[in-house]
Amino acid sequence: MTNKSVEALLDDIRLLGEEQLTLVEAVRALMGKTIGPVSEEVKYGGIMFSSGVPFCGVFAYTGHVSVEFGSGADMPDALGHLEGGGKRRRHLKLHGVKDIQAKCLAGYLPMALEAARNRA
């Protein structure tokens, strides 16, 4: 069940563009298929996902949607799709729905959860 603050954020994302809203909704749907039930919280201007521990967030921008991994530096990246060079965080930039499959997001989600659990 979606809480009111998530619904309000989705309404705001709709103002950025239908492509961004479609991408955010696709990430949320993939989360349910890949991880199962997760809690969602609006934080830092995006939707943060938790399953025992917070492990991932989705953020909409004018030109793309970013899927952020708080413990991304601890994740294996054999495919080389993760971006960012910070101490801990990594992200995937999605410019269209095709990027979800092209950048193997479904494979990164369980790794993000495992990395966050290992860090906790």
TrEMBL record:
Pfam families xref list: DUF1801 (PF08818)
Name of the protein this chain belongs to: YdhG-like domain-containing protein
Positions of the YdhG-like domain: 24-109
Domain of life according to the entry: Bacteria
